[in-house]
Structure formats: C-alpha cells, structure tokens
Design goal:
This protein has 27 helices and 26 strands. The chain is an alpha/beta fold. It has five domains: 2-106, Archaeosine Trna-guanine Transglycosylase, Chain: A, domain 4 (Roll), CATH 2.30.130.40; 236-290, no CATH class; 303-481, P-loop containing nucleotide triphosphate hydrolases (Rossmann fold, 3-Layer(aba) Sandwich); 487-494 and 501-566, Helicase, Ruva Protein, domain 3, CATH 1.10.8.60; 585-761, Ribosomal Protein S5, domain 2, CATH 3.30.230. Helix 2 runs parallel beside helix 6 (179-231).
C-alpha cells in the first residue's frame, strides 16, 4: 500500500479532507496511487516541523483513504481531496522509491451499544452543541452532522476532526481503539475547549466595554471641540504646548536645560502660531527634548566576553584589543564615573580602523555611531549654527548623540587628518573642545546654547597620516598605530573573514568554494599591492561572483580554486612579487618609503653628464627631500678625497637625481642616505647592491639620524623581495614592532655613519685603463706590420 506522509494533520475515518501537498514524497505517493487503485495509507509525521520521509519518522497507525481528486496548482503544489475509510496498522516496509510502500493490516472496529455508551454519546453531543454555538470557527451544521452519527467511535472521530487540537493529541485519539475510551477523551477535550471559549467570551466582552467607553469619550471630545469652536476657544497650539510640557516633565534634563526649556515654553505660548518665530522655538524644543539627557547604556563588564567579540571580528591588532580590555578592567575597579579614553587609530587604508570601532562598541555593549570628517571645512559642522540663521541645526556631534540614544556611545570620528580650513573657520579648533577631557563635560553647541556632557562618550578617531593631524588635536588623543599586514596576517584574515563573508554575499553555501594556502598567497602577491586587505577582498569577491554566475547558468564549477584557476578568472598577475633589478647598477640605490597605503621601496637614480656642476632634481620631490639631495651632494664634495672621487668632475659634470613614479609627490628627510649612496656610486663608478634597501636622514658630517615609519618601510621592502635592510642605529628600538616571522627572514644592519653603509653596499671600483706611451704604441704597430 502506498504511504502518504502528512505534515501537520491527522486523517480520521469517514473524514473528507482537502489538502495541499508540497513535499516530494507526498506528491510521489499521489502519483503512485493514481496509477493504481487510488488508495493511500495516510500516516502523520512524528515531528511535524521535520521534513523526513522515512518510515521511522511516521506513526505506525493511520487511515486508509481514497484519493477523490488530485490537481496540480500553478505554484507547484498538488491539491487533493481525500476520504478516510478505516484504521490501518503498518506491518512491514516494502519499498522506498519512487514512493514509500508498506504492508498494512486493517484494525477491526469495536462497537458496543450499552447504556453507558449511550449516556456518554448524549453528554458529548450536548457539550459539542455548546462548543459549536460559542465558536466562530466551527460551522453551524457541524452539530447536525454529529446528530446523524449512530456509533460512539464515529462520533468521537468526527468531533476530534473538527476541534483545534495539536497533532500529537489527534494521533493519540486515532490510536485509541476502544470507542468508549476514545469518546471519554474527546469529552474531556470538549470540556476544556468550552472553558477556553467561555474565557475568550468574557475577555471579548471586557474589550468591547473598553471600546464602547473609548468611543463614548471620543464622541464627547468631538462634541467639546464643536462647542469650543462655536465659542471661539479652539486653539491647537494649546494641545501642542501641553504635549511639550509633558515631555519636558518626563525628561531627565539638567538644571540649566530645564530652566531654558521652561523659558522657551513660555515664549512659545505667547507667540502666534502663524509667526515664523513659533516654528523656530518649536524646533528648538524638539531638539532639546529629543536628546538623551541622563540616559546611559549598560557597559559590558565581562572581560572574557569582550575579548571573544574582539577576536571574533579582527585578527591580530593586539595593542588596541589590550587597550579596550584595560579600559573595561579599570571601569570595573574605579566605577562607572571613570572617563572614557580618546583613541586615535593611525594606519593605511584597508587595515580595519572603522570596523574596529564597531567591534569596540559591540565588545563594550554600547551603541555605535560614525561621523566622517573628510572634507569638512566649516566649524559650524561641529558646533552647530546659531539660531539666528535660517534653517539652523545642531552640529554633527549633537546629531550623532541623538541618533545613539545614550550619553555613552562609541563615536567614531573618521578621517580626522582630512579636515579642511577656509574662511568659515577651522573645524579642528572646534574638535579641541570635543576631545579635551577637561572641557567636553560642558560642550557648548551653538544651536543648543546649553552645556552638554560628552565626557562619557568613547571617542575613536582614525587617520591615514599622523603628520596631517593638527598638533593641539593630536596632543589630546592616545595614538595607536595600525601598520600594514604581513603576508601571513593577510593569509589568516582571508581564511577566517574574507572568504566566508564573500561566499555569503554571493549566495554560495559555506565550504562550497575552497581557497588553498597557495592560492591565497598567489592572490596576495600577484593581484594586490597594499598594506590592508580591501583589494584582496575585492579579488575574492570577483571569483565568488564568477562562480555564482556559472551555478546560475547551470554550468559546472570548480570546488577548489587553484593558482591556475585564479589566472583564468582574474587574468594574468598584475604585480611582480620582486622589484629587484637583475644586476647591480651604478648610480641606482634602493630606498624605503612610507605612504598612506603602507610601506614601499623607492629607487633613486643618478645620472652624470657634461656640464657646469648643476644639480637637477625630478620626480615631484618636496622641499625637505630637495634639501636632502643638496646635503648629500655637499657631503660628497666635502669628502671627495676620502671617497676617492675626482674633485675636478664636480665642476665639469651636471648631476641629475630622479626618483621614479614621477606622478606621485614625495617628501621627507629619510631619503637622504639613499640619495647620497646613489650619488657616490655614480661619481665613483662603483655599483650598488640591488638586494639591500636603506633609509635614514644624512647630515653634512655623515651621521645617520633616525626616521619614522620603520615597521611599514621594512614590511614594504620585504614584500618587494628585499632580504637585507640598512637602518639608523637609533631605530633599533623599533625592530620589536616588526613581526617575528618577517624579522627572522631579514638581515638588519644598524649603522650610525655613512661610511658603514658605503662599505656594505658599494662594489669594487672599476678597473682603470692602462696608460701606454706613444713610443710603445708605434713600436708595437711596426712589429705587427
């Protein structure tokens, strides 16, 4: 016999049931029945929330039913009409495909016509009549149908099929074979349903009374409005004023703010509604009352939970994570009145500064709001406009506090190094009051003209260049540098975060596309050249999108992305892993630079030509870098004898110093050493080692002074294939910031004078041409003739 699995219903004997079937197993059963005698065994699933089709997931007792009608619907489901016949018990399975078939035996009904059964039937009919009369979901003819049933078991089945019962309860009644016991259980269910209906009726009656009372009050209010209108006493502004006073009374305003609100409310009451001043005052009151005066969100005090949140969203970044956990620990010990820190995250694009601010808010359990300061030139954007201006509004700081809904959110001030200045003022000066712990507890917005407490706000600023941040503003912040990621860090970030995120964004199930370690390294080296991982995520997203398209088009797709597959999907590699020249060259030295995108190598080229001792500098060099070139040339001329240089060449030779990538502006003193080495190499004819990169400021005495950005510069040189670097000796303290995986593969030379560098990087001098006298040349020519 074909088994029809039912998801959320139980079929009873002699029951007419229209059903909509969606599962493949149910549709297959109907099709198999249609090909046979149109008979199925309807079995309910044990777990109606699970879509299982095995015999173990179905009840063993069901009802034999006849399929009266089956029709395919436009939405893909099948509409059937079943008529239950008799109870059946499953004996053994026969087949599972294409439809489940079993061997089943009918269960013979037990019918006893005793006085007790007759009395129980009458009691059940009486209860059923009351239920039908009180229920809105049961049709009136249900009771009439029940009167025509002459058997106790049939009456119990009919009543059970009409009551709103859970599936396990229905199945329990179906499996109760004794008619008297089955009718007894149904009578108990009828009594319970009757109690529920009576309680529902009482609740409905009370609700109706409340509605009638509300309608009566509404009618009386409408009458009052008409009377007031006839008397000329109707004034909508009075109701508006009343609502404002209620809001003011419930708000936790400061003393000055409450006094100002009362003053403005008195003004509003005396201003005509049609006056423009009325709108100005009303808008001001709305802003003041909408701010979260005294509202604080509860901080997360669980250090372990906060650490889990930070580690879940970001890889590495140990220093900033430790700082947040220290803040939570101090707050636990010192209490909630501890001032929030003001952090400044400095690093190249794509290293996760903004997303880190969001994770800090999640770890602390606070709301997160973000304010982009890039291109802001007007001081009023921070402090707001005075109310004398048309369309005046509070500044962006107050707007974000209102958006956060609490006095202690995490407020991210993005791109603080890109603030502008014009005739309207300097926004950086306005930020001084915002970020000063001694002043921001009484921050004065021009629009509010009230002191507002910002001391509980956790400020986090971000910048790409620390040099572009005004010094007074920088002095008020705790700077935490986020350098570029190493290849190993990028690999871990791609595995843990980027690949799963892009699979989800492309609609691909987790694990459907695997990126091996060699694949990710090939993408990092050949398709990205950045300090962060933003470009890497774009390349991963491109591969996921191309795979999603193949799946949507029904084509086969690779489950494992190999380096060869990457080239087919993304094209040939766009970057060379190593930028080293094939041979050592004269007049070419490799320096190291720190840019907004992280560290990089910076070759310096020097060419000599006949002239009058001029110096030409090209490559968009800034003033400081030009001065470094002049200092390098002066050192070479002053120490020409010690360097074994021909002093006469300086007056008969023009020198051209060029730094490639001329479209990119360059500045800073750290290229002084590199320029000097390239100059001395060109003047002496000695080649410079191509596998050594250097940085440092050069003085006229040949001393090498420390410079900044050591970690970024070293990582950039490492990415370019350099395995030996020359650093100022005083920068040795910065080596601890370089990851151990990189430091172990590098040879670092710490120097304090240029002589040490020249001995390290310059090759041997070129062979001098042999000097021969004219007499020897003539004699040799005669001998050869």
């Amino acid at each position: 016999m074909v088994v029809l699995p039912l998801l959320d219903t139980v079929l009873f004997p002699h029951m007419l049931a229209p059903l909509f079937l969606n599962s493949e197993a149910a549709v297959a059963a109907i099709e198999a029945a249609g090909a046979g005698d149109h008979t199925v065994l309807a079995l309910a699933r044990r777990d109606h929330g699970h879509d299982g089709t095995g015999l173990a997931e179905l009840y063993s007792i069901g009802v034999e039913a006849t399929v009266q009608r089956a029709r395919k619907m436009p939405d893909g489901s099948t509409s059937v009409l079943l008529v239950g016949r008799r109870r059946m018990r499953v004996v053994a399975p026969l087949a599972e495909a294409p439809a489940l078939r079993v061997r089943a035996t009918p269960i013979r009904p037990i019918e006893e016509h005793t006085i007790a059964v007759e009395a129980m039937m009458r009691s059940a009919l009486a209860l059923f009549e009351r239920v039908v009369r009180m229920s809105r979901s049961l049709p009136d003819d249900a009771y009439v149908t029940a009167l025509n049933v002459g058997e106790a078991g049939g009456l119990a089945d009919l009543i059970a099929s009409t009551l709103p019962l859970a599936l396990p309860v229905r199945q329990e009644i179906l499996e109760t074979l004794d008619p008297e016991e089955r009718l007894h259980r149904v009578s108990a269910l009828l009594s319970r349903e009757l109690d529920v209906l009576e309680l529902e009726s009482r609740i409905q009656s009370q609700v109706q009374k409340e509605v009638d009372r509300g309608q009566r009050e509404h009618y009386l209010r409408e009458q009052l409005k008409i009377i007031q209108r006839e008397l000329g006493q109707d004034d909508p502004s009075q109701r508006e004023l009343l609502l404002l006073r209620e809001r003011a009374a419930s708000a936790a305003l400061s003393e000055r703010a409450r006094a100002r609100v009362e003053e403005e409310l008195a003004r509003l009451e005396s201003i005509p509604t049609l006056s423009p001043e009325h709108t100005v005052v009303r808008t001001y009151l709305d802003w003041v009352l909408a701010l979260p005066w005294g509202a604080l969100s509860d901080d997360n005090a669980d250090l372990r939970a906060a650490a889990r949140v930070l580690n879940k969203n970001h890889y590495g970044l140990t220093r900033i994570k430790d700082r947040i956990l220290e803040f939570i620990a101090v707050r636990q010990l010192a209490g909630p009145h501890q001032r929030s820190p003001i952090l400044c995250l400095v690093g190249p694009p794509g290293v996760g500064k903004t997303s880190l601010g969001r994770s800090v808010a999640e770890a602390l359990g606070r709301s997160f709001v973000r304010l982009s300061l890039g291109g802001v030139r007007d001081e009023a954007e921070i402090r707001g406009h005075r109310r004398t201006y048309i369309g005046a509004m509070p500044g962006r700081i107050i707007q974000r506090i209102k958006e956060a809904g609490a006095l202690n959110p995490v407020l991210m001030l993005d791109e603080v190094d890109k603030l502008g200045v014009d005739f309207r003022g300097d926004p950086a000066d306005a930020l001084l009051e915002v970020l000063d712990p001694e002043l921001n507890n009484t921050f004065a917005d021009h629009y509010l003209d009230l002191p507002f407490d910002l001391s509980k706000v956790f400020f986090i600023t971000s910048a790409n260049y620390l040099d572009e941040v005004p010094a007074p503003l920088l002095d008020r912040m705790e700077v935490i540098e986020l350098p570029g990621y190493t290849e190993e860090e990028k690999l871990q970030i791609a595995r843990r975060f980027l690949v799963p995120r892009q699979l989800e964004a492309s609609g691909l199930p987790p694990g459907s596309l695997r990126f091996g370690e060699s694949t990710l390294r090939a993408m990092i080296r050949g398709y990205t050249y950045e300090a962060g991982v933003r470009g890497l995520e774009r390349e991963i997203a491109a591969i996921c999108r191309k795979t999603a398209r193949r799946i949507a088009e029904g084509r086969s797709h690779p489950h494992v992305i190999t380096p060869r597959r990457v080239e087919k999907l993304l094209g040939p590699p766009r970057y060379d892993v190593s930028s080293l020249d094939e041979t050592d060259q004269v007049g070419v030295a490799t320096g190291m630079a720190y840019t907004g995108a992280g560290g990089d190598t910076m070759p310096v080229e020097v060419s000599l030509m006949e002239g009058k001792g001029g110096l030409t500098l090209t490559g968009q060099l800034g003033e400081v870098m030009q001065e470094s070139a002049h200092a390098a040339l002066s050192y070479a001329r002053a120490h020409a004898v010690a360097l074994e240089l021909d002093t006469r060449r300086f007056e008969k030779t023009d020198i051209h110093v060029h730094v490639p990538e001329g479209a990119t502006p360059k500045d800073g003193p750290s290229a002084g050493l590199t320029i000097a080495v390239a100059l001395i190499s060109a003047l002496s004819g000695r080649a410079v080692r191509r596998d050594v990169a250097m940085t440092g400021e050069l003085t006229l005495r040949g001393r090498i002074l420390p410079v900044g950005g050591i970690k970024e510069k070293v990582l950039g040189a490492y990415r370019a294939g350099i395995r030996e670097v020359v650093l100022p000796k005083k920068n040795g303290r910065d080596l601890i910031e370089i990851p151990s995986a990189v430091r172990s593969r590098l040879t670092v030379r710490l120097v304090s004078h240029i002589d040490e560098v020249l001995a390290l990087v310059l090759g041997p001098p070129p062979p001098r041409p042999e000097k021969r006298s004219a007499r020897k040349v003539i004699t040799r020519a005669r001998e050869e003739s």
